[in-house]
Amino acid sequence: MISKKYAQPLFMIFMSFGMSAIMSGVVVAVNTSLSYGFVERWLYSWMFAFPVALIAAFTMAPLIRPLVNKIASKD
Fold it and tell me: Of 40, 42, 50, whose CA–CA distance to 20 is shortest?
């Protein structure tokens, strides 16, 4: 098992992976349809989307976390 201290970075990696895959797939489908070659276009697009999503997640998390903690209920 992986140490609990790596849970947050691992979560951000998995979320970036999934969200970039879904979003790049939707954008490619909307812009070029599900025609022949869709998978190749999607993978090419995702190849750029995943690193951007990963960098954005690690950059934005420290900025967003305090905001969420401020507005979230303390129940």
Answer: 50
Integer Rg of the chain from CA: 16
Question: What count of residues does the chain have?
Answer: 75
State the Cα–Cα distance between residues 46 and 44, nearest whole angstrom.
Answer: 6
Note the helical H segments in the chain: 7-32, 38-71
pLDDT (tens digit, 9 = 90+) per residue, 24-71? 999 999 999 999 999 999 999 999 999 999 999 999 999 998 999 889
With CA atoms as reference, report the closest residue to 39 among 52, 53, 17, 24: 24
